[in-house]
Design goal:
The protein has no helices and 11 strands. The chain is mainly beta. The termini are far apart.
Length: about 120
């Protein structure tokens, strides 16, 4: 049974930091690209950051580049998002997604809420 479970969300003040974690099981994690997406209320889900299966290449949305960093531990089946210098517009439900390639399969977690407010 495929499972992606996000954790680490919470409320933080602007300028603060959070680290999100995504625990994966039920599929060959080391063979899958991993991504973080987010969705704010009344907005479409948007790509945040991604990393290929080996961890040797990552990419970021322009809005988070330089502030967020992705990483993965293929021995522990874990995927991370380090978020620094958070802004109010980073508030959203954050999801991790596993990608088996251009045509899938794709697996999604249920999300973890991040709220940035003073």
């Amino acid at each position: 049974q495929v499972q992606l479970v996000e954790s680490g969300g919470g409320q933080v003040q602007p300028g603060g930091s959070l680290t999100l974690s995504c625990s994966a099981s039920g599929f060959p994690f080391k063979d899958f690209g991993m991504n973080w997406y987010r969705q704010a209320p009344e907005k479409e889900r948007e790509f945040v950051a991604g990393m290929i299966y080996s961890g040797r290449w990552s990419n970021y949305a322009d809005s988070v580049r330089g502030r967020f960093t992705v990483s993965r531990d293929n021995d522990k089946n874990m995927f991370y998002l380090q978020m620094n210098n958070l802004r109010t517009d980073d508030s959203a439900l954050y999801f991790c997604r596993a990608s088996g390639g251009p045509t899938g399969p794709y697996y999604w977690g249920r999300g973890t809420q991040v709220t940035v407010s003073s």
